[in-house]
Amino acid sequence: MTLSVYQASVPVFARGLTNLRAVLQKAHDHALTKHFEPSILLSSRLYPDMHPLTRQVQIASDAAKFGIARLAGVEPPKYEDVETTFDELYARIDKTLAYLQGFDAAQLEGSESRTVTLTVPSGKHEFKGEVYLLHFALPNFFFHLTTAYAILRHNGVELGKFDYLGRMS
Predict the structure, then answer these.
(1) Side-chain half-sphere exposure of 138, counting CA atoms within 13 A
(2) Which domains does the chain have, with CATH numbers?
(3) pTM score
(4) Per-residue model confidence as pLDDT tens digits over 85-113
(5) Rounded distance between C-alpha atoms, residue 43 and residue 29, angstroms
């Protein structure tokens, strides 16, 4: 069996974001049911030097759109990172899912060997597409999904493993 870059990326990012959206909905519902301001969850963090929930969602969204765009060799859309409500985070996730759905397998053919250049504060890093996807893009994406889940779980939102993983079909 051969696994394509498309199969290892677009559906994986889409499933993670879909599950994140459902987790956020549970968190929003939890705040309303318990009669506290939902923004408390949005500004929560695991530790003072870590990003709050809102930023974790923004970065997870960026990880997906940048990951696919870099592999496809296209310029990703720019999001302004201005979300302050659950509804705005849902809209951002929906926008990212629509962007991912705009890609097909042909656009990612050969991207496993394409050079991907990533510029970060510490400098430029070059990866072959396969290494970029498997050792940077996906781990970064899952780090922020997991952190968002952990922030909510830490704050009493009743979540379980299958909220994170999604139901198996």
Answers:
(1) 16
(2) 5-165 (1.20.120.450)
(3) 0.95
(4) 999 999 999 999 999 999 999 999 999 99
(5) 16
